[in-house]
Amino acid sequence: MIRTIQKDGQILDMEEGNEELQKTIWHTTSHILAQAVKRLYPNTKLGIGPAIENGFYYDFRVEKPFTEEDIAKIEEEMKKIVKEDLPLERSVLSREEAIKLMEEKEEPYKVQLIKELPEGETISFFKQGEFIDLCAGPHINRTGKIKAIKLLTTSAAYWKGNQENDSMQRIYGVSFLKASQLEEHLRLLEEAKQRDHRKIGKELELFMTHELVGSGLPMYLPNGATIRRILERYIQDKEIDLGYSHVYTPSLANVQLYKTSGHWDHYKDDMFPAMKLDNEEMVLRPMNCPHHMLVYKSKQRSYKDLPIKIGELANDFRYENSGAVCGLERVRQMCQNDAHLFVRPDQIKEEVGNVLKLIKEVYQKDFGFSADSFKYRLSLRDKNNKAKYIDNDEMWETAESQLRAILKEMNIDFYEAEGEAAFYGPKIDIQIKTALNHDVTIPTCQLDFALPERFDLTYVGEDNKEHRPVVIHRAILGSSDRFISFLIEETKGAFPLWLSPIQAKILPITDAQIDYCTELKAKLRAKRIRVELDDSNEKIGYKIRKAQLEKVPYMLVIGANEQESKVVTVRARKNGANLGEMTIDEFIEKVQNEVENKEIENDVNAETSIDEDGLLNLNKELIDNLLEQLKEKDKQISELHRLIENSQILLKEEQKKSEQQLYLAEHFEEVDNKLQDLKEKMEQKRNYRKSLFKIFSK
């Protein structure tokens, strides 16, 4: 148990593990952070320091940005403050006293906050040691209760989030009552980095963004487009089987449509600005329901026609703040898996039940989420802030009690949350526990008595009189974009086979198998199996690793044996498991059955690595293939030896011929020399005879 100081100054007990307690701890730690900063950097001006979803932050006006070394010093100082075990003391001041106190401490942003408080608002401060801060609370009673602190990051910010205001420096952090809680939180943060759909989306080439297109407007690449197309076809087929009719309606509409529906009054801030076209004021639609009201109203309906189920996969547009957009999770254009059921009052229970059954089938059967990961929330209006909702107390009481009764009759555990309803009616929100231990709300089922009234929808009853239908708004996948981001992070990009953009990759060991692999690729594609061929010059081990990093469910290793036997050696994504040899038909049948049954790996989050058995099997395969290659090389070497021997024989013959030619050349040279000597001697004798002849002639 731990005691916390509440807003009204009372001290109450709270159990450890309570969500509100954790926020209180984080809020208190933000004050410890501010105290540490003021101790180390006295000239720093204080902004605000709230608890947020996953920790806390505090904004500071600083002379120069904090460095990593500064952050380390601040964290150490915070730990000192914790060891000091300072009590937190609450005090209440008048407006004048509060302003004077903050002016004396030269805290202009606090002065501004006080002046902006409504007249009569309680102005409270919390003090710990020498530090005092404007704050409504609550806080834990002593700094020493906090046992683990970690400052995570810093960022630039603007005072009160307005870029026209002063620039601030924001420090984020977390804290816990136990060191083990901090360790687990840091582990989850690291896990979140690995699961970040933006990171995985880039690695797997699923989607991209570009500043020339605009913030919050992602573009789907071929792999991502394949996933989205399969998802949308899947949910449409589900709906068609359940009697839904699908329509297409325009993304633009006259402003008057949303004034009629009430969205203009209650949702205008989330819509894009209206634009003038000719004599009409047009707006990009933020949702589909007003259009579907008109589709229903297009002709007279009978009680026999109901329920009428109108579905649409439609692009909707919502003005998300640029700082809030995030990958596929928060976008400005989204494709909504939307549907509206027009029912008689006596059909409400059955059709709401059918919607909840469909949600269960989709998420638990086809996507493999356990029943334990589901949490049902009955979202009600805030009775203390009725201006946010359509003003009809009777309608609200009826709708809320009906949804409550349906959940109880179906034996569904649920909790109630005031202030979470849509402006036109209460709803059942299904929250799913993610791999990162977060609760996300995707599927919803909403009950609406208001829009049928606003659009004057009717049907002719058994009594031949007009009656008002009730509308059930429901979303199963929600927006395609957000659902895909959710799936990416849940699976780490290792999508189940039926959703994988590439279901199999063919990996030839050598170029000698390319022709066979090309034939295999054509056969698999003819059976609508999404397959690719890696015909690169890389080694087989590299190809396998690359396919695993690409999260491909099946790798087909093809060597000389596979080619000769007309089979494939199948390796699975999960742990690199070797499934052995299969005929092509056997592999096709395996894939088709898995796709048909929406089979899911027991652990969709398993690392795509090769286990020891996989390594041994892979080594055996590689050795076998290397032996084949060596045999081929031996043949080539033997042939080369034969050629060398033949060349050597020819060389010897050539050498012999050369030697003979050299001998003859030398012999002929000798003959030439002898002939030349003989010629010279003959010439000498001839000259001697001439000289004798001349002597005797005298």
Which key terms come to mind for this protein?
single chain; 698 residues; alpha+beta; Threonyl-tRNA Synthetase, Chain A, domain 2; BirA Bifunctional Protein, domain 2; Rossmann fold; 4 domains; eight-stranded mixed sheet; five-stranded antiparallel sheet; 31 strands; disordered N terminus
Can you offer a commentary on this structure?
The protein is of the alpha+beta class and 698 residues long. It folds into four domains: 2-193, 2-Layer Sandwich (Threonyl-tRNA Synthetase, Chain A, domain 2); 202-491, Bira Bifunctional Protein, Domain 2 (BirA Bifunctional Protein, domain 2), CATH 3.30.930.10; 504-610, 3-Layer(aba) Sandwich (Rossmann fold), CATH 3.40.50.800; 630-698. It has an eight-stranded mixed beta sheet. A hairpin with a 5-residue loop joins strand 1 and strand 2 (11-14). Helix 1 (19-40) crosses helix 2 (68-84). The longest helix is centred in the last third of the chain and has 86 residues, at 612-697. The radius of gyration is 41 Å and the shape is extended. Mean pLDDT is 86; it is low at 1-15 and 603-618.
